Amino acid sequence: MRVGEDARANLARAREAMESLQLGKRPKPHFAVGFSEVGQMLAVFTPKRWELIAKLRDLGPVTTAQLARMLERDDRNVHADLAALFEWLAVQRDEDGRVSVPWAEIIVDMKLPAQPAA
User: What does pTM read for this prediction?
Assistant: First the structure.
């Protein structure tokens, strides 16, 4: 296996974290999840769920019922979408039961299949 961009980026983040710790600073948090297939990613991050994520970023922490009202969607559907997004850690729930998106950005990165030799 050759070292690719992902490995270089991970090594750079590790180096930055170690340097921060050596200076007595808190390292910048980084979290990532991966999907083995594009279809899996598209099943989790549907257009409605991206809309939900964007609305949560605009609103800040809210209850599921408040979010459903703001999205003008059925509570059950919003609850189901949140459950899927909780599973992938894209959203979180605080001690008061309010949901929010703790991330400043969500980057979706997909690799194309290897090109067959000619």
Answer: 0.72
